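Appendix B. Chain record.
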Amino acid sequence: MSDLYRKRVLGAKIETTPGTAISLSGSDAAMNVFNLVANPTAASEQRMGQGAFGQLASVVGLQTGQFTFMTELYGSSGAAPSWLQTLFAGCGVSYSAGVFSPKSEMPGSNVKTLTLGAYTNGVYKQIAGAMGNVSMTVPAGGRVMLNWTFQGRWTTPTDVAIVAPTYPTPLPTMAKSVTAITVGAWTPRITNLTFDLGNVVVPRPGINSDGGLHSYLVTDRFPTGTLDPESTLVATNPLYTQWISSTEQAFDLTLESSTGDTVISLDIPKFQVSNAQEGDRSGIQFDTVTYQANRGNTGNDEFTLTFAAA
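Structure tokens predicted for this chain:
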């Protein structure tokens, strides 16, 4: 029997014990996922034959795998959906009282490892002990998208019937409902903005673990992003001066969800331009800006993503 590539569903659940796979059901797959790819990443170790050219049977090293996929950003009733809270927890970001904020912790009360399962038209692929990274894209007039990459311990695929979750119905937040975007006192006109959590995700090997791998860990992060504002006079915004002088200033992006009852805000207290280059957009001069989100006085305050009632 041939499989149809489009018939695939993603499930994700927080593990009760970090690194120990947990069973998934249809309720753990109640999210709209795009471009799901689930692959093993384990390397084969070659074994040279003796007495002549040729190879002996190779063996598989650390049993690793990677899932990549995209989701739409939305809120409802002034809160973030539960699946978003799950995925962010697997990226070292906790959720409390409508606010996502990064943490610097081992998996425990705030940071979590996940079991992710890809149901691909009858075949089930899984990674456990998974942690990952996420980036956000905000293109003018388009959907606000979250791009996820998770790494975990690969499990040999099995035949499992595809689950039938109840999918969410809210439409995606669109980048034409921006109610505010400010960098310090400047309100730039941009066509595209990105924000990358910048997690460093590393394996946690263990000879007493299945596949030689206990789980993955987030051991550092370096939040960065890009934006492409139309160029302005120095008197309006001294962009290049700010770059040279290492100026830090507040950044805010505020969006209204499609439901009209939720406001979503990305706030960076210490936004710093790390580079700027000129560009040409159909005859309109603009600047390609890269930036970094610096830590504040205590850390774990590089950014917040807030969901609030409109």
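Further analysis of this model is presented in Appendix C.
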